[in-house]
Automatic annotation (TrEMBL):
The protein's name: DNA ligase (ATP)
Gene3D superfamilies from the UniProt entry: DNA ligase, ATP-dependent, N-terminal domain, DNA ligase/mRNA capping enzyme, Nucleic acid-binding proteins
Magnesium as UniProt keyword: yes
Superkingdom: Bacteria
Annotated source species: Halopseudomonas xinjiangensis
Keyword Magnesium: yes
Lineage start: Bacteria, Pseudomonadati, Pseudomonadota, Gammaproteobacteria, Pseudomonadales
The ATP-dependent DNA ligase family profile domain, residue ranges: 304-434
Any Gene Ontology biological process: DNA recombination
Length: 531
């Protein structure tokens, strides 16, 4: 356990990719297989079920420290991270011994051991660790308790470290890490076993991710070398049909069994195959994403919702066919086989993503210009000769998205961020004018440079009207341009409107608040582009 705590601290202390890669490689080289499996599990973003909520942890912290709850809350807001707040307040300047035992043993006892305990026993168990662990180990323990163990290490970096250590292709390591797995010494050893067949029941493949195309598409060369299709606005998924079952996996490696029964039923008509595609709400044509959200929010779907929001699987690639891996074959060959698979199925819940044809790049750009009316996000451009790669390998797949919608909104409220930005105001609530008042329209967290964040933070501190806990109400003076992908009516929002994926496009120093957009102007956008 101590070795993993030291690794976590080392990773958290640097932003250099090579330093992180070296630290990971050293750890995996020396670690016992069972500990290595748990480290892989945690560092690739997988989470154990949270057994104690953050609210309860704050209550126990107040009791354990004897501090007033307002002071604990104020400290938490200042630090910005509950795990770090607990480790700092519980240290008391004591020098505590290093943690004994392996990571696997420690997880089994300290974390998973909470499963069978009653509430009071859980509190005793947690406080015992808070009082006995050195600060860095206590910090890590609380990260695992809260399910928020992020340390600036990408999944790809873990794959690279394991591939370097084992002298195996990174694509093979990535494949073996896909899907659900039980952290064990056997699993960790099998990551490097040349003879091991990596497939587990329903195991997906790593997704191939497109890179954004920001320049002139003609820079890609001859159009005849490229395959164009619509960039669908749904849920990216792999549909797996194997002799022992049907599986659906999201791009985030979430199993979605039972949530889209019409697609799983349709998949029974398929041969042994793995398809990449998009889950879309679809009636006579594609439905707005806001309709798809009604299905996303339900793990079990009633008959009424099944009728109101039918879902299809729009297939655009074939990764496995008749028990063989087809990812290394050219896209043209995979597409030909995919066309046959979908045609032979003939189930309306399984569709083939149509090709978009243009005589030249200019003609294709004209078709792309109508994307929003078609309720798609633009075009996908895929090299006809390309294999199906892993991750965001640049050069073969590009997403040529339409420009986002934008409005100019006024900064109304701000609160601190988390982690390294806990002492800066980086969480913004933006509003539009409605007569003589301002109506909140969106929250945004990203888009400004570090320098702009520092400048805006200083302005926020000097122009606060009121404080509500960590939130500051501000003088309505700063205008920020917001970019967003979609707009829809929403009874849950005071404005009656929800913006999809809002982010800050730029800080409008040139525009006074009186010239920001109005609620009526946003409603005009809703009438034209609303879903």
């Amino acid at each position: 356990m101590q070795a993993f705590a030291d690794l976590y601290a080392e990773l958290d202390a640097t932003t250099r990719t090579q330093a992180k890669l070296d630290a990971l490689a050293r750890y995996f080289k020396e670690v016992e297989p069972a500990d290595g499996a748990w480290a892989v599990y945690m560092l690739t973003g997988r989470r154990m079920k949270r057994l104690v909520g953050p609210r309860r942890l704050r209550e126990w912290l107040v009791e354990a420290t004897g501090l007033p709850d307002w002071l604990v809350e104020e400290t938490y807001q200042h630090v910005g991270d509950l795990a770090e707040t607990i480790s700092l307040l519980m240290e008391n300047g004591e020098v505590r011994p290093a943690v004994e035992g392996s990571l696997a043993q420690w997880v089994e006892y300290a974390i998973l051991g909470l499963r069978d305990l009653e509430e009071e026993q859980r509190k005793t168990h947690v406080l015992e660790h808070w009082r006995g662990l050195p600060r860095q180990a206590c910090f890590l323990y609380n990260k695992l308790l809260t399910g928020s163990m992020r340390v600036g290490v990408s999944r790809g970096l873990v794959e690279r470290a394991l591939a370097t250590l084992s002298d195996r292709p990174r694509a093979l390591i990535a494949r073996r890490l896909m899907g659900e797995f039980t952290p064990s010494g056997e699993f960790f050893s099998q990551l490097f076993d040349e003879e091991h067949r990596e497939e587990r029941d329903g195991q997906p493949y790593p997704f191939f991710l497109a890179s954004p195309l920001e320049g002139d598409p003609s820079s890609l060369g001859d159009l005849t070398e490229w395959h164009a299709e619509w960039k669908w606005d749904g849920i990216r998924a792999q549909l797996i049909a194997r002799p022992n079952g049907i599986w659906l996996w999201s791009r985030g490696e979430e199993p979605m069994g039972g949530r889209f029964p019409e697609v799983e039923t349709a998949a029974l008509t398929l041969p042994e195959v793995v398809l990449d595609g998009e889950l879309l709400a679809w009636d006579a044509d594609v439905l707005p994403f806001s309709q798809m959200q009604r299905r996303i929010q339900r793990k079990t779907v009633g008959e009424n919702l099944l009728r109101e929001v039918p879902v299809i699987f729009m297939a655009y690639d074939l990764l496995e066919y008749q028990g063989k891996n087809w990812r290394d074959r050219p896209l043209e060959d995979r597409r030909t086989a995919l066309e046959k698979v979908i045609a032979d199925s003939a189930d309306p819940a399984l569709r083939l993503s149509p090709m978009v044809r243009g005589t030249d790049w200019e003609a294709l750009a004209s078709l792309r210009a109508g994307s929003r009316e078609r309720m798609v996000e633009g075009l996908m451009l895929k090299r006809r000769a390309s294999p199906y790669r892993s991750g965001r390998a640049r050069g073969d797949w590009w997403k040529w998205k339409i420009d986002p919608l934008t409005i100019d909104a006024v900064l109304l409220y701000a609160q601190p961020g988390h982690g390294r930005r806990a002492n800066l105001y980086t969480d913004y609530t933006l509003a539009v004018r409605d007569g003589d008042t301002y109506v909140p329209i969106a929250k945004a967290y990203s888009g400004l440079t570090d320098k702009e964040i520092q400048q805006l933070d200083r302005w926020i501190r000097g122009n606060t009207v009121e404080k509500f806990g960590p939130v500051r109400s501000l003088q309505p003076k700063q205008v920020l341009e917001i970019a967003f992908e979609g707009i829809a009516p929403s009874p849950r929002h005071k404005s009656g409107i929800a913006l999809r994926f809002p982010r800050i496009a730029r800080w409008r120093h040139d525009k006074p608040a009186e010239e920001a957009d109005t609620l009526d102007q946003v409603k005009d956008l809703l009438r034209v582009y609303g879903s």
